[in-house]
Amino acid sequence: MPLVVPGINNVKDGEGSEDWKNLLMGKKLTDTTSDATNFARRDLPKEHRVVEEGSLLTQDFKPDRLNVHLDKDGKVSHVDWK
After folding, report:
1. What is the largest CA-CA distance in the chain?
2. Which DSSP state fits 67?
3. For 42-54, what is each residue's pLDDT tens digit?
């Protein structure tokens, strides 16, 4: 069952960025469960994009899309809404 966090999952124009930052920073994304060091991809908002270090991005602007940026170790380095 996906994680539903009131006020975080349904956001517009970058609202909730700090909340997502607090949930994800330093964690690795997994296909299984969320815990202290991992976060399950299925618990991300429907509109999201995972950006690995060094990846090229399209320049389309989607203010309701959460971008999750990973560092070279696969841990979340920052998040933004674009």
Report:
1. 33
2. E
3. 999 999 999 999 9
